[in-house]
Design a protein that fits this description.
It holds the Pfam family SH3_Tf2-1. Residues 38-71 form the Tf2-1-like SH3-like domain. By secondary structure, this protein is an alpha+beta fold. The protein has 2 domains: 3-67, no CATH class; 95-143. It is built from 3 helices and 6 strands; from the N terminus they run ααββββββα. A 3-stranded antiparallel beta sheet has the order 1-2-3, with no helix packed on it. It has a 3-stranded antiparallel beta sheet with strand order 4-5-6. Strand 1 (39-44) and strand 2 (47-50) form a beta hairpin. The chain is extended.
């Protein structure tokens, strides 16, 4: 598990380098070099707390320089930006595909029904345990066979 995922209980999906066609995207050390006036404090030897614009206020504001590498340009390396739709809270909408397993957990005097949900986005599949009652309310089509 990545440190960010361990701290916040979700994967980091930072939109820092997403940009519209025609705009220049700042990456890695370029971003640090061009935003030195936005550095609030040095947290550690290679980590800095940055002042983020209001629309990025929900992102973690500490950047680790050691995690960035200088990109060596290569003419054969062409990236086409993909069009994605973000929710208001800057998260990607991911739809559940199926229910893979069920479990009942005993919490004190209460039983809680959980389901193991398979989520898919761009041919990447992940699994999480969710409350069955919430999944039945939000995604009733997943339970039509049960």
């Amino acid at each position: 598990m990545a440190p960010y995922e361990a701290l916040y209980g979700r994967k980091c999906q930072s939109p820092l380098c997403w940009y519209e066609a025609g705009e220049k995207g700042l990456l890695g050390l370029e971003m640090i070099a061009e935003t030195t006036e936005q550095i609030l404090e040095r947290v550690r030897l290679v980590a800095y707390r940055m002042a983020l614009p209001p629309h990025l206020s929900n992102l973690h504001d500490v950047f680790h320089v050691s995690k960035h590498r200088k990109y060596t340009p290569d003419a054969s390396h062409v990236l086409e930006p993909e069009s994605i739709q973000l929710k208001e809270d800057l998260t990607l909408p991911v739809a559940p595909v199926r229910i893979d397993d069920t479990s009942i957990k005993q919490l004190h005097r209460k039983e809680v029904s959980l389901v193991k949900v398979a989520w898919s986005r761009d041919d990447i599949e992940e699994h999480t345990w969710k409350l069955e009652s919430e999944m039945r309310t939000d995604y009733p089509h997943l339970f039509s066979g049960n």
